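## tool: complex_structure
## caller: assistant
## args:
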Amino acid sequence: MKTKKIFFRTNLQLLVVFTLAAFLYNGCDKGIAPEPEIPKEEQAGFSGKITFLGQWPDGVQRTHLVVFENPLLSAADFNVFNLKFVGPEIPYGTTEFNYNSVDSFYVEIGAGEYAYVAVAQSKAEELSLNRVDWYVVGVYYANNDTTQPGKLVIPEKTLVKGIDIICDYENPPPQPPGGE
Amino acid sequence: MRMNKPIFLLVFLIACVELFPQTFSISGKITDVNGKPIPGVNVIVRETKTGAASNADGYYIISDLKPAGYTIEFSAIGFKKFRRAGVKLTEDFILNVTLQETPIQTEQVVVTAAKHEQNISDLPVSAGIINSDLISKRNITNLEQALRYVPGINLTGDQISIRGSSGYSRGVGSRVLLAVDGIPFYTGDTGETIWEVIPVTEIERVEIIKGAASSLYGSTAIGGVINVLTRPIQDKPVTYVKSLGGFYSKPSYSEWDWSDRTRFFNALTLAHLNKTGDFGISASFTRLETEGYRQSGFNKKYIGFLKAIYDFSPASSLSLLVNTLNKRGGSFIYWKDSRNALVPPDENQGQRTATNRYLFGSIYKNLLSDQLLLNIKTSYYRTSWSENSETGIESTSHLVRGEIQTDWSISERFLFISGIEGIGSKVNSNIFGNPDALSAGAYTHGELKFDFPLLLSFGARVDYGKLDSLKGSGAFSPKVGLNYKLTEEFVFRSSFGSGFRAPSLAEAFTSTTFSGITVKPNPKLKSERNFTFEVGFNYKPLQELNFDLSVFQNEYYDFIEASIDPTDGLVVFDNVTRARVQGLEYQNTFYLFDASLILNSGYTYLWSRDIERNKALKYRPRHLFYGSIDYNLNKLISLGEEFIIGSDFRFWSRVEEIDDELAQFVKDAHLRVPVYVLDLRASYSFPVFNFPVRFSFAANNVLNYNYIELIGNLAPVRNFSLSIEFYLQ
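## result:
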């Protein structure tokens, strides 16, 4: 009988201690908290101007600036893990579009190295990741080297300026694999 | 030829005796130690499995029993079970019984494990029980909330995982089978479980079977079964009213305070039960409304429930079940960012959903002989839902089921169950297409009792299914279990079996784009399979003390998960993973100070691995702990009143892996923490003009701890609710 009482008492004490510990723990920690807002000038990103030359094709539903981390060597590279930035929708018929990745985006970009920066158009209403829905109308070339896509390097807390792209409908760039 | 008249009469009388053998009844009154009648006591004749429930005045009667020796068992929640053996029936027998009250929860019955009633201590697998009382006292309005307090269970949003069976796939393809009164309840398109359809006020008890149960239930039961038993219909008319109101606290941080006013929620249930002669009915209507603690988290729901029973004879009955849900509300998919954790992204603002779901079911039972019980279940489940998102989702599904089951008590030692089941479904949807599916299964289950005392159970099920244009496939799911009572206090159990899950139509045929993610159909998708093993024991050294320990291992093959197709980069449901879940589970209950204080705790350790990638499975916490305290203050108040205070605490460790695909589109998706939730509650029952009335108060997440179950979805902030229940009888 005595053993039984001691057993209960010990367990009860343990439980009280545990409950108090839980209270204390929770009292100190509120769990998830808002991430501190990074001042705009400290946010990593890029900006520039997109110029459209020629007549916009009929039926274009969406035009976006997109950034991929790795080169698009196959249709499979056009995937959600490789896609690192999707800019806001560029209105149909635009001739010049100034952008800043920090201001507006669907998918936010951070500091890093990116292999492919392009302007892509889709005739689908939805924002899809199906390669066949997209047609590349402009590619970023660094240092006027149009033989290969230019690499975008964004250092920490830096806005890289001058990432300009020309979209010439009469002279479209090479298409990545997997398109129609 | 003319027969002599006396000889003719003799032959006629003998024929009558043979054709209409004489039967007798057992009847009586059941009272407590104070002589007060106890209604709702289950009275079972163990040999024939026939029975009755005592009426409001404590009387019961079981008719049509052949002359023989019987054992009669009386059981009711809150009373010690009473068994009277050796009742020799040679004439109508009166058996009055006095039951002793016990606040200690004694042995209960479950139906789900082997599709027949058996004591929980006879099961070869781990099981859990949620009683209606706890649902009511916690002011729970959705069954999903109650399941969060069961050891071994965790939820990611509304998707349930028993012992690590599931991660998160936006509800598609549940690995846990939900059944209502034994009727499976999953949608025909996505194969998901819709918890909010079930009116919690109609629940008598929820039984949870942990581990694969495909050997009896087929697909979907690969991770376990949750069977909801609705409350029985009483002889005396009862009208029940429950009203609930509550509000959410302000969030912890001012950045999250998106609304300039307090957000409220409320619920109202009206129910009526009655039985007239052989016909009984239970009907309820529930209206729930919440303004939501998140922007776009508002909704209105209307739940209808009807159960009607007609007893053709003491041996046969037909039950009809109707359950409906109508819901309109906003849609919150994920947060804008951690600074706007209770607000959806700008592009998702204004999204709305509309849902209508209807379940019609029937259960026909006929005790064909003392040894043979026939059970026929049919159901039709129609669901339609729409969402005015960017893709404008619309889907309607129809699912019909039919099942015939026989329980054959070959002898007192050997029970043999067998059945066949057929399922057909048809979908009309702008994202799943218009596919249909057909499947059929046949199962057997045997239970053999030895004197040692060992209970050996074994069974198997074969299934064949065809999903529209996909190639048809079969599955064989065997299971063997044993239950050995070393002593009355120490019960050892073990089971080994296999389960499977056929892909849902949604997994095979989804073709849609949402939030930039494009999902394509997979015509090569096949069923996933698992092998499950469990060994455990239950030990009751004292009536006030109960320990339960189990060790388990589940091996999954061809696990279906959403992944990226390397050929085109699109998302597709595929058989991508070989997985293993190992773990142990410990539970105990202490009854202290004459059971005035009840302590419950449970701990589960889960080691869940994606073997091919050598990573943890997504959304599986490694540690789960639950604790509860209930303190009965009845000694401080008058007779006839009840005052109970209680507290629940749960802890889930931080999940190691999440959806990388979804995380690309959810800002601050890396934010996840361990879950610590503390709830407090109090309930006070008292009679008003002899009608029971109960007030229940609940404070959930009282420490306002901020956590997520699913990335980008902050769990409910602290909230308070008060309910009042009336029973007019």
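## assistant note: The beta strands of chain A are 45-53, 62-68, 83-86, 96-100, 112-114, 116-122, 134-139, 152-154, 159-160, 165-168. Chain A touches chain B at residues 4, 8, 11-12, 15, 18-19, 22-23, 25-27, 29-35, 37, 75-83, 86, 106-108, 124, 126-131, 178 (CB under 8 Å). Handing back to user.
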